[in-house]
Amino acid sequence: MKKEHLQSGRKSQKQETRKKILFATQQLLEMGREPTMEDIAEKAGISRATIYRYYTNVDAISTELLLQLNVPDPTVLMEQYKNSSLLEAMLGFQKAYLKFALDNEKTSRKFLAAVLSSSNPKLQRGQNRISAIGAYFDSNTIALDTKTKNKLKNISVVLMGIESIIATKDVCDLTTAESIETLEWGLEMIIKGCQKE
Question: Which stretches make up the HTH tetR-type domain (predicted)?
Answer without folding.
Answer: 15-73
